[in-house]
Amino acid sequence: MARTLLVAGLDGSPAPHWQHWWAMTDPTALPVELSTPHRPVRALWETELAGMILQHPDSVLVGHSLGAILIARVLTNWPQLRVRAALLVAPAETRGNDRIGHFGPVPETPLPVPATVVASRNDPWMDYRRACDLAALWGADCVDLGNAGHINVAAGYGPWPLGKVLRDRLLRRAVPAWPAVSRSEGKGIRT
């Protein structure tokens, strides 16, 4: 089964955040450790996420807030990375934000993998219409959670089983990033 890499946003995802719950309840899940979660450095975070993807190829990426934007940036900048799918929850707008403005611009081109954006109609970090517009630009589905705030602890999101359901739906539509090669297919090749 594909590994699930959990990518937190600004300030991380400590207990009782749904990403923490997911990491504790899903043996395929692995939180991506990002340096300085309270003061993100774009180039450093991009390199750290790319490194985790290289260590765990064919993973599904699950990002929250700035983590969702980080995933979009890494997939756009390094489309050759072996990623099966991306679940982008409550992406955070970088424009006009003092703490994360340096993470911009947000990519506005199609992502190289199947993706789903999960958006809230009253998210203080990104307008619902902007989130759905980004989903369209990324070639992703947009799931409307209604008035769900930033889909974080402050909005009442500790355990979030729907996240796993959405991940599983993505995995059913996605193909492995690199198909397996049978032993017989490799015969007769000289190096």
Automatic annotation (TrEMBL):
Has keyword Hydrolase?
A: yes
Regions crossing the membrane = none
Tell me one Pfam family matched here: Ser_hydrolase
Q: Name one GO molecular function term.
A: hydrolase activity
Q: Which Gene3D superfamilies match?
A: alpha/beta hydrolase (3.40.50.1820)
The alphabetical list of record keywords is: Hydrolase
InterPro entries with a match to the protein in the record: AB_hydrolase_fold, RBBP9/YdeN
Q: What is this protein called?
A: Alpha/beta hydrolase
Organism name: Paenirhodobacter populi
Q: What is the lineage of its organism?
A: Bacteria, Pseudomonadati, Pseudomonadota, Alphaproteobacteria, Rhodobacterales
